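Support request from a user on the community tier.

User writes: "When I paste my structure tokens into the form, the page sometimes reloads and wipes my input. The last time it worked, I copied everything first. Here is what I submitted, just in case something in the input itself triggers the reload:"
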């Protein structure tokens, strides 16, 4: 007789999501049948919260399932960086690169630690989104931006980039601009520095509030401004990062680059709609 064994990774978490989905469906069916819930009522808000929770759980599973693939990809990114630029590095730069590689290798060997590392990063990414939305200003005011770093090598990941989603399991609400590690990052417009964030996952970012929106500068390795500081277009605000395993990068980085977000009103927007043609 043919015997088939099926192994389900993280069965309790998957059962919890399935249970939540069924409960949500039954709750929605009750609302439709009863017709007793006014639009915008408390139960409607509860349904939206449940939907959001289920979506976050699914996203977490999607990213964690790619854990080993992501880490191996990042190790290959480090090797490519070394092959391309390593001959010109100082001893300190070589040491930084080696430290980053060692960190990725440790995460590859320790599943529990790397999964927790990813969960922390996902929470920080969501928190960044909320903070940027809070600083997004009046969308009726025109917003014209300058490049925060020169796009000499183009764009490595576009807004809602499909390849990015396939690799990391996340929707990419930004553009990624390849640039050498520790390059100067400049404010894209006049504004006020709202947030300097140093995350437990290693992810670091800056949020600047402008009259017509907010900009977020992710994977920075060093802050050169302070919260509450008024900045002008072109002012140097940080040094770039993004090298996997290095300070500022976090666990979901594609290599040395600047992650650049634009938020207006209640949504992330494609930054290329507000930047000069490159």
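"...and here is what came back when it finally went through:"
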């Amino acid at each position: 007789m043919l015997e088939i064994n099926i192994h389900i990774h993280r069965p309790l978490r998957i059962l919890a999501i399935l249970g939540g989905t069924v409960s949500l469906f039954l709750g929605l069916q009750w609302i439709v049948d009863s017709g007793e819930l006014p639009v915008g009522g408390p139960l409607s808000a509860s349904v939206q919260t449940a939907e959001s929770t289920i979506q976050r759980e699914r996203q977490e599973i999607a990213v964690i399932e790619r854990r080993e693939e992501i880490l191996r990809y990042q190790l290959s990114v480090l090797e490519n960086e070394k092959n391309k630029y390593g001959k010109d590095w100082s001893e300190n730069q070589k040491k930084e690169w080696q430290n980053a590689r060692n960190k990725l290798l440790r995460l590859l060997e320790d599943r529990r630690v790397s999964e927790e590392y990813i969960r922390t990063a996902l929470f920080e990414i969501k928190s960044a989104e909320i903070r940027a939305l809070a600083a997004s200003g009046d969308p009726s005011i025109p917003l014209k931006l300058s490049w925060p770093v020169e796009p000499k090598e183009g764009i490595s990941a576009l807004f809602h980039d499909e390849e990015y989603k396939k690799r990391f399991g996340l929707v990419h609400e930004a553009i990624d601009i390849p640039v050498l590690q520790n390059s100067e990052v400049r404010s894209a417009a006049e504004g006020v520095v709202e947030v300097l964030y140093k995350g437990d996952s290693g992810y670091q970012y800056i949020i600047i509030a402008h009259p017509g929106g907010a900009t977020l500068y992710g994977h920075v390795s060093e802050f050169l401004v302070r919260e509450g500081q008024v900045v002008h277009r072109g002012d140097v605000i940080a040094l770039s990062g993004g090298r996997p395993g290095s300070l500022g990068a976090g666990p979901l980085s594609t290599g040395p680059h600047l992650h650049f977000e634009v938020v207006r009103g209640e949504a992330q927007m494609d930054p290329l709609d507000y930047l000069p043609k490159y």
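Agent notes: The reload is a front-end session timeout and is unrelated to the input. The longest strand covers residues 191-198. Confidence is low (pLDDT under 50) at residues 1-8, 14-18, 20-32, 34-39. Escalated to web team.
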